[in-house]
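Today's session is about reading a structure prediction critically. Students often jump straight to the picture, but the first step is always the sequence itself: look for stretches that repeat, for charged clusters, for runs of hydrophobic residues. Only then move on to the predicted structure, which in these notes is written as discrete structure tokens rather than atom positions. Here is the chain we will use throughout the hour.
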Amino acid sequence: MNCTNLIDELRQRNLIFHITHENKLKKNIERNLISVYCGFDPTEESLHVGHLLPLITLKRFQKRGHTPVILIGGATSLIGDPSFKEKERLLNFDHKIDMWVLKIIKQVSYFLDININSNSAIILNNKKWFEKINILSFLRDIGKHFSINTMINREAVKQRINRLDRGISFTEFSYSLLQAYDFFMLNKKKQVSLQIGGSDQWGNISAGMHLINRISKKEVYGLTLPLLMQSNGIKFGKTECGTIWLDPKKTTPYKFYQFWKNIDDSNVYNFLKLFTFLDCNEINKRELNKYKNQQIMKDKSYLAKYMTRLVHGEENLLAAERITQILFLENAKNIKKSDLQQLKQDGIHCIEVDQIRDLQEALVLCSLSTSRTQAKNMIISNSISINTNKITNKNHIFHDKDKLFNQFTLISRGKKNHCLIFWK
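Below is the predicted structure for this chain, in token form.
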């Protein structure tokens, strides 16, 4: 059993950005089992990798015996959190939100134990209490506890107010009161005493603590996690090609796997601390030896395997590794049709054709060469492969044997440039 106080462990793992009453919280979780919550607004049909940090942190609490509470914002997502957003979100309709709620519930259920006796995860929807609330009662009983001066001076709000071109609507301005009420209701109904979230949620979390203290005279706690940025300044979870989703229909397990394989070297050991349950001492030892025997590459692979297995399961991890072998180790022996369908979705460049005259034309259509003359020279120089088999015939014509599962042909130029032909 891990004897380190959980808050100390979170500090060791660089997981704490803000925290209130740290010593009191440490003593509280040493003496008592608490309920801790994090909210997720279903403003899309899937969570993305940026949501993994709070989910895994909730799992750390659950492994220590505490009860994780997931609050799905079926009501608050109709508005959208304005925190550090440059402009107002597009508002979604109830029926769409209801569908997304079901998908998000299914996703979060995968990360936490929901069928254990003592501290099963609890999943709630704030639509349950907001549907019944009266606007006059809310303004009188909740709104009176908040100062407009304080709300305006929150950094997330100030950034929008100071932008004359966009500003902030009253709808968005009221969001922090709604989230504060969530914390109040969870404290009242489920004795939740700690809320966690990204560092951009600090103002909303503080509002909840303030409301509980004013109405219930109780002390509760807040803890925020760092918002992660990649070395290129892009928010973690987003790439040049878009967001890295948890839904395999939006981001394939192969692309998810490659996302982790290709993180910057400077992030490897911090990410091992943040996202895995490897002991911190073990991670520190690995970091000390990162330039010996390609240790850092091994640790990147470990991270990619761990995260892909966590999110997509063992079978999809094996598929991601198979596809990687095909593309980078040139071994298509064990390829499956589902692997090629992943590549077609978002793995590599793909073209759809009815027919192609020959390999030279295919190389031009696939943007692997700029002309038939260049394509011919590439083939002669032994740099072109079909389904990982080298082709040296400059006049190669496609045959049925070149079509995997009668639908796919993988053309490669060297080891890093690929195109998938999908025969219609």
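Discussion point for the tutorial: Residues 13 and 273 are 5 Å apart (CA to CA).
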